[in-house]
Design the sequence.
C-alpha cells in the first residue's frame, strides 16, 4: 500500500494547509514505507525545493515528492556557451549581455557552485525588463519552456519529452487550451486527461489518496482510478460556497473534519454526504520548560493577510489601549492582499512606532513563545492552526466567538477570550485583562489543549488509514 498526498506545488513558504499536509506526510512515513507527495505544477526546481524542505525539517527524509511535469522524459543536458557574450556573475546567477551590449539572458542556479541550473530567462531585446520566454531545467535537463505575452496576458507552456514538444498548455486569463504532440500530428486534449493517464500508471487499488478541500479540481484527475479516497475539509462551509468541495462528497470514501462540532453539523445538514465521517484535529508538539523570562512586551498576530482575518479590527482594538500601555508593541507576520490596507490603517492610527507589519515567518513557535498574547480574529474559521500553536507556547489567544476552531480551542477567561464579532471595545478589554494577569493565562494554556497532543493525533491518523 502506498499513501499519496496531493498539492499543486511545493514550497518552504506556505500557509497552514500545506504545513498540515507536510506534518501528515511526516508522521505517516514513520509507519508506512511509501509516502508520496504528488505535485502538478511546472516548478523549475523540484529537487532543490525538496532538499530545502528536508534540510529545515519541514518534510521527513523518507517522504518522496513526485511531479507530473518532471516525470516526463527528456535527455538533453544543458551546456553553458558564453562565447561572444559579456557576463555578470552573481552568487547564484549569471546575467548575459550579447555582443551588442543588450541584456539577453538571466541564468538562475540552485546554489552558488553554479553546477545545477534552475532556469534561463530570455529577455525581450526592445524592453529587457520583460521576459520573452523561460526555459526550466531539471538536473540540468530542459523540461519546460514558457512563452510570455504580457501585453495580452497570455502564456504558452511547452512540456518537453525526448527533446521534443510533448504538451502545449495555452493560457489566456481563465481560459486554458491544451494540445498534445504525437509524432507529426497535434491533437486537442484536456490536461486533466493527461494527469489521469499519468496517475493510472502507478496508483493501485490498495493505495490511499488524501485530498484537501482547497484543491477540489484534483478529483477530476482521478476519474476511473480505483483507490481509497480520503477528503480533508479544512475550511468553514461559508468559504466552501466558492470552492464547492462539499458537493463532491459522494466521490470520497471517508470525509475528515478538524472539529467535532463541524462534523456533527455537516453530517446533519448536508444530505450529499452519506459515507464515513472522521474527526482528526491538528496537533501540537509538546515543548518543555518554556522560558517565561524571554517574553517581550509584544502582542502578535501570525496570519494570512486577507479580509476575513479581520486584521484591521485588531489594529483598531490595539489603538484603544496603546496609550495606557505605552511599552507594548504589536507585530503582525504574514503575506496577502490586505497588506497595503493594513499599512494605510497603521499610518491612519498614527501608530507606526507601535504596530509593525513584518514578513512571513518560518518559526511561528519561537515568536509565540516570546510574546505576551496573540490576536487571531476571523469572520469564520475551520480550525485555526495558529491558535493551537500559540497555546502550545503558553501564549493566550484573543479571537472572535465564531465556529469552529476558536470555540473548541479557546476557553473564555482561562486561556484567552472569545469576543463578539466587530466589538472592538471587547477586544481591547480582553487585551488589558491578559496584560494585567498574564501569568495566570499563560499557565492555563498547555493544560487546555491536552487532547491535541501528537500521541493522540497519531493514533487517530493510523486508525483513519487502517
Sequence:
Amino acid at each position: 500500500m502506498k499513501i499519496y498526498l496531493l498539492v499543486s506545488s511545493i514550497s518552504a513558504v506556505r500557509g497552514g494547509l500545506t504545513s498540515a499536509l507536510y506534518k501528515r506526510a511526516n508522521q505517516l512515513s514513520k509507519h508506512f514505507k511509501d509516502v508520496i507527495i504528488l505535485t502538478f505544477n511546472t516548478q523549475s526546481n523540484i529537487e532543490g525545493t525538496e532538499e530545502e524542505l528536508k534540510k529545515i525539517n519541514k518534510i521527513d527524509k523518507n517522504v518522496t515528492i513526485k511531479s507530473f511535469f518532471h516525470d516526463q522524459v527528456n535527455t538533453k543536458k544543458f551546456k553553458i556557451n558564453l562565447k561572444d557574450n559579456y557576463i555578470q556573475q552573481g552568487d547564484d546567477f549569471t546575467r548575459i549581455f550579447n555582443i551588442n551590449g543588450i541584456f539577453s539572458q538571466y541564468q538562475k542556479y540552485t546554489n552558488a557552485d553554479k553546477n545545477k541550473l534552475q532556469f534561463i530567462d530570455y529577455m525581450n531585446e526592445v524592453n529587457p525588463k520583460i521576459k520573452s520566454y523561460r526555459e526550466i531545467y531539471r538536473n540540468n535537463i530542459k523540461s519546460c519552456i514558457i512563452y510570455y505575452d504580457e501585453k495580452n496576458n497570455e502564456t504558452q507552456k511547452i512540456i518537453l519529452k525526448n527533446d521534443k514538444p510533448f504538451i502545449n498548455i495555452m493560457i489566456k486569463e481563465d481560459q486554458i487550451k491544451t494540445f498534445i504532440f504525437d509524432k507529426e500530428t497535434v491533437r486537442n486534449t484536456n490536461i486533466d486527461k493527461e494527469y489521469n493517464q499519468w496517475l493510472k500508471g502507478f496508483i493501485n487499488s490498495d493505495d490511499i489518496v488524501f485530498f484537501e478541500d482547497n484543491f477540489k479540481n484534483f478529483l477530476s484527475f482521478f476519474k476511473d482510478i480505483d483507490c481509497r479516497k480520503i477528503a480533508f475539509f479544512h475550511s468553514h462551509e461559508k468559504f466552501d460556497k466558492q470552492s464547492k468541495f462539499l458537493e463532491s462528497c459522494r466521490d470520497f470514501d471517508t470525509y475528515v473534519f478538524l472539529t467535532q462540532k463541524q462534523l456533527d453539523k455537516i453530517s446533519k445538514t448536508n444530505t450529499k454526504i452519506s459515507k464515513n465521517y472522521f474527526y482528526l484535529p491538528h496537533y501540537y508538539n509538546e515543548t518543555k520548560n518554556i522560558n517565561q523570562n524571554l517574553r517581550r512586551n509584544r502582542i502578535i498576530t501570525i496570519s494570512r493577510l486577507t479580509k476575513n482575518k479581520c486584521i484591521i479590527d485588531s489594529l483598531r482594538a490595539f489603538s484603544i489601549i496603546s496609550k495606557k500601555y505605552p511599552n507594548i508593541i504589536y507585530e503582525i507576520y504574514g503575506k496577502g492582499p490586505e497588506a497595503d490596507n493594513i499599512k494605510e490603517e497603521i499610518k491612519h492610527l498614527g501608530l507606526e512606532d507601535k504596530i509593525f507589519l513584518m514578513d512571513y515567518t518560518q518559526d511561528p513557535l519561537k515568536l509565540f513563545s516570546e510574546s505576551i498574547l496573540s490576536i487571531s480574529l476571523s469572520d469564520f474559521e475551520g480550525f485555526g492552526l495558529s491558535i493551537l500553536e500559540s497555546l502550545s507556547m503558553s501564549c493566550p489567544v484573543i479571537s472572535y466567538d465564531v465556529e469552529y476552531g476558536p470555540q473548541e480551542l479557546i476557553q473564555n477567561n482561562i486561556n484567552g477570550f472569545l469576543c463578539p464579532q466587530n466589538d472592538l471595545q471587547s477586544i481591547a478589554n480582553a487585551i488589558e485583562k491578559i496584560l494585567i494577569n498574564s501569568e495566570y493565562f499563560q499557565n492555563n494554556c498547555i493544560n487546555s489543549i491536552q487532547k491535541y497532543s501528537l500521541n493522540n493525533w497519531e493514533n487517530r491518523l493510523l486508525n483513519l488509514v487502517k
Summary: The mean pLDDT is 87. The two ends are 11 Å apart (CA to CA).
